[in-house]
Amino acid sequence: MNITNLELTNFRNYKKLKLNDLAKTNIIIGKNGIGKTSILESIYVLCLARSFKNNIEFNLIKLDSDFLKIKGDILGNSKIKKLEYFLSKSGKKTKINNVLKKKISDFISQYKVILYAPDEVKFIKDSPSNRRSYINISLSQLNKSYIKLLNDYNVLIKNKNDYYKKLYINSFIDESYLDVLDLKISELGYMIYKSRRDFIEKINNYLKKICKKLKLGNEINLNYISQFNNLNEDDFVKLLKKNRKKEIQQGITKTGIHKDDFEFLLDDKIVKDYCSQGVQKMVMLAFKLAEMEVLIKDYYEQPILLLDDLFSELDETNQNIILENLNKEIQIFITTTDINNIKKNILKSAKVIDLDRMVER
Predict the structure, then answer these.
(1) pLDDT digits 0-9 by tens, 136-186
(2) What are the distances in angstroms from CA 144 to CA 136, 140, 151, 207?
(3) N or C: lower Cβ tally within 10 Å for the chain?
(4) What is the CA radius of gyration of the chain?
(5) Cα(101)–Cα(82) distance, integer angstroms
(6) What order do you get walking across the sheet with 99-101 strand by strand?
(7) Cα angle: 12, vertex 291, 338; to 5 degrees
């Protein structure tokens, strides 16, 4: 599966950009600030209908423009599929083969994408909510029903919190409605928990091998921290009821998968607390490579791999280790400021896009 052509209109700083005849390996070079990352971002948006940055969505639209458009031709199974993403102040529209999609869920993840960027280390450093968000995005690429499941669960939690506030004001309100909510929260929560648990188990299976290749240590593990651990669905209903009185006083639901967290362990040490910035970046890269293996070997998908400014983050030894261990069957986009950072044998088979000259060579 390859993107063969990419066309941007009013995206970030690009008024118009066309990239044609893209290859398996594509190297985008140019000075800082010229728009290398924006090209990777446009591919990400085309696959997931959202940016990997936390900016306001409309900031994707070029200044003094009213809309943006991203178009891509994707070759898979000897067929071309045309994807189109359109955003204006009135909202977003998506098309596949010129057919408008009524639901974003019918558009996203037509093709899978994995991104590694310098600030991806925030998965390790940031809040639990950001880590959950990342895992949710990964799972949404694997299972469309996961998005609906998560949305339905979040509605239940909102309804429960609203009812808690009523109970706090008037303690004589019947709590039987909470019993109904808790049964449903437990049911959906357990389904989400199993999806996350199974995904993390698959990731950990590949992390062991990748850890040795990257010479990071003896073993990396992604630890899944959940109140559902070691509980079945019935046990969780009991836990929800047990915590109800305290939650009514606080006016918020603190029991459920919306409080899950994830942490990396390197040789049984918590990476966030005990490892350097450099090691944390290598751990995140290992995680991305493991995610790629899950897609290829467990789900038989060929993801697009986006590597943003990879070479500025790694020394020459680690650069060579990464490049030698990339899956040769998938399409890769690499950004760099200096083409001399890249080995000649990689350049030989790659398409080089020089943004400084705006010439493809």
Answers:
(1) 999 999 988 899 999 999 999 999 999 998 887 887 778 889 999 999 999
(2) 11, 6, 12, 25
(3) C
(4) 23
(5) 13
(6) 14-19, 2-11, 67-76, 79-88, 91-96, 99-101
(7) 50
